[in-house]
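Discussion board: Methods & Data

I've been asked by a reviewer to show the raw model output for two of the constructs in my manuscript, not just the figures. I'm not sure how much to include, so I'm pasting the format here to get opinions. Each protein appears as its amino acid sequence followed by a line of discrete structure tokens. Is this the kind of thing reviewers expect to see in a supplement, or should I convert it first? Here is construct A:
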Amino acid sequence: MAEFMSQGLEAHSPEMQKAVDDHYNFILQFWKPDRNAYKSLALSYVVPSEYHEHYENVAQGLGTYIYEAVVFYADNNLK
């Protein structure tokens, strides 16, 4: 996902949305989040947390980028 951000692709780009779809399908192995639950999971990438720290260590702003992509995906694909 960092590569899409570094390429300047928007969070709602087809490439990033495919990556989020892959992420969502991975999550389905463990639980089936609805729209709000999936967005809440992504919020942990923005607020102070281990997830946020991890993504920020990969690339500054990556947690927010992924959050924005997940929100777009959830709003357009989940109930």
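Construct B, same format:
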Amino acid sequence: MEIRYSVTLDEKVVGTVSIPERAAGTLVARLNPLPAFRALREMRRQFRAVARKFAGELTEDELAGEESALADLSQLELHLVNERTGVAVPNASVRLLRNEPPRVRIQFWRPEDALDHPDRAG
């Protein structure tokens, strides 16, 4: 059985994922994006098309800027919220991957993981 979760950014829902009920560890799931995220994805797609067309004319700084922008997207702090109950999942970190269609990597943390992982060190 799968559970549907909202994926949120700054408490605003940007998409949904369906994952197995007893998911643990790390998994990758397809993000079903809402319109605001689709608009962002379309801008990325258009930028990449232009960059490919003019690849010989782009400077190293422009190419580095594109890579930096894509890397920034993967660092967004996304969260899971159970759609049925509205309860946030406090032990899950969510990162956007660079795939098309969009996917997210979800890491479910156990208390003992918190001390060992750089994303969770305080």
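Answer (T.O., handling editor elsewhere):
This is acceptable in a supplement if you add a one-line summary per construct. For B, something like: The longest strand covers residues 12-20.
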